[in-house]
Amino acid sequence: QVQLVESGGGLVQPGGSLRLSCAASGIPFSDAHMSWYRQAPGKQRELVAAFTTIGSTNYADSVKGRFTISRDNAKNTVYLQMNSLKPEDTAVYYCRAITLSIYWGQGTQVTVSS
User: Fold this and answer.
1) What do you get for the CA distance between the two ends of the chain, in Å?
2) Mapping DSSP to helix (H, G, I), strand (E, B) and coil, where does residue 114 land?
3) Cα(59)–Cα(48) distance, rounded to whole angstroms?
4) SS3 label, residue 31
5) What span, in angstroms and rounded, lies between the C-alpha atoms of 19 and 36?
6) Tens digit of pLDDT per residue, the chain (114 long)?
7) Do 37 and 45 contact (CB within 8 A), yes or no?
């Protein structure tokens, strides 16, 4: 059974930081294409950060220079370090894995507010 479990969300003030984690099980993690998406209320889900097929990284323009995606294959975990958070970063953040199929986590809420 495939599971993607996100954690690390919460309430943070503007300018603050959070680190999201996504622990995967049931998939060959080291071969999986991993990415982070987010969905704000009333908006479509959008790509935030991803590992490309050649091993580099890709970011949405709105988060470049502030967010960093990383992975630890030994722990089957992908991370999203989020710095200099803004109110417009408020959303539910989802982890996605692609192997032979596409899998999504349940999401973790990030709220940026003073």
Assistant:
1) 40
2) coil
3) 6
4) helix
5) 12
6) 999 999 999 999 999 999 999 999 999 999 999 999 999 999 999 999 999 777 789 999 999 999 999 999 999 999 999 999 999 999 999 999 999 999 999 999 999 999
7) yes
pLDDT confidence of residue 108: 98
Q: Give me the half-sphere count of Cα atoms (radius 13 Å) on the Cβ side of residue 27.
A: 25
**Judging by DSSP bridges, how do beta strands 57-59 and 67-72 pair with one another?**
unpaired
CA distance 105 to 15: 26
Query: By the 8 A CB rule, do 5 and 105 touch?
Result: yes
Rg (CA), the chain: 13
Spatial CA neighbour of 78 closest among 21, 10, 19, 36:
21
Helix (H) or strand (E) holding 32: none
- Spatial strand order of the sheet with 77-82 comes to 3-7, 18-25, 77-82, 67-72
Task: Please give the single-letter amino acid code of residue 80.
Answer: L
The pair of structure tokens assigned to 106 is: 């349940």
